[in-house]
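thread: overnight batch results

M.L. [08:02]
morning all. the overnight job finished for the chain we discussed friday. pasting input first so we're all looking at the same thing
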Amino acid sequence: MNFSRLQKILRTMKCFTFSGDKKNEPKSPKSVSVQSTNSTFIEGDVRKSWPDLNSQNVSDTSTESLRRTSFPSLSQKPSNLRVFTVSELKSATKNFSRSAMIGEGGFGCVYKALIKSAEDSSGKIEVAVKQLGKRGLQGHKEWVTEVNVLGVVEHPNLVKLVGYCAEDDERGIQRLLIYEYMPNSSVEHHLSTRSETPLPWAMRLRIAQDAARGLTYLHEEMDFQIIFRDFKSSNILLDEQWNAKLSDFGLARLGPSEGLTHVSTAVVGTMGYAAPEYIRTGRLTSKSDVWSYGVFLYELITGRRPLDRNRPRNEQKLLEWVKPFLADMKKFPQILDPRLKGKYPLKSAQRLAIVANRCLVRHPKSRPKMSEVLEMVNRIVEASTHTGSPQLPLKSLEVLETSSDTEAKNKRRIADLRGGEIGWFTRIWKPKLLRIR
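M.L. [08:03]
and the structure it wrote out:
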């Protein structure tokens, strides 16, 4: 099936165009991303979860962002995506057997499969096949966004989209996405008690670095800006060599056009990660992703979820729980993930917390850009290499080499990263915490 055939199907589905207008935003029931235990919410869910927001007119569309914007489509940008048939994918997944299923989310199931290699017709490669269920327009929109985004971007820290399938059969329109297979699951999995082997500290630093590289690319290194909008640990997957890659771009949005400050959208994302100003106003900027990244850094430091209802009431919200421990350097080790068993350089953890606090400044304009965040994390990783090489969770894997990042922009001196300046945390970190009930 060629691109014109794909576009015809998308027109039939009435979801081939993405707009800066709010009227095209999804309004469907609550969903959960694949491999995630966190609730992904939309505007209606936000109003239920944050009753105090009912007085806020989140649906107002800013006059600054009425201009329509859309992702570069497959017909506008060169793409190497392969087009699959339903028959091919049925064969590869044993007719979508539960024995081949490796994940299940709000918009469908994910299966592990073997397909023919494009480079070597006699060889096969492992892939992950996401089959979208028939749950309304939201699933259609996520599918199209994934194709449009991953079809035109390429970076070592973004999961590669191998191809797609959009075909009519006896079951109706089949929409599937085929990704490179990521054998080491998600970062969320390895931080949870479900993982038998916790991630060592050096590997957590490397994951923080990889994730920052991916976001920097999306925000600053292309002709257009992409805002992830659902950055979280379950959307960061690990490949065979434990490189971290961002995945699940179904909620991504094109950044504001030149001269505009933000994009007005319906509020979607994951509770515990979403930036407070975005929750209040629906105004989306790249700094919303920066906030989510800051939350993720505390997740790496503590091994805790941003929101965990299974913990005591005063420990359920991660950002509220850590705050009292940041004013006193002697108390700071108490928030470190106990599964690390003390095997971490304390100064390294302190410095990573400082970076997190820079990302969690209440006013979005005061937060650093991701290229600046990346440079700060690079410095921490470089400093940590003097104390030893990163240890991988599995003995059979080779140690990753440290690579210098030449793409970081807007270099600055990071005087804040001197060890022992924990008291500085409480002076700079004053985020308006989300009221999640």
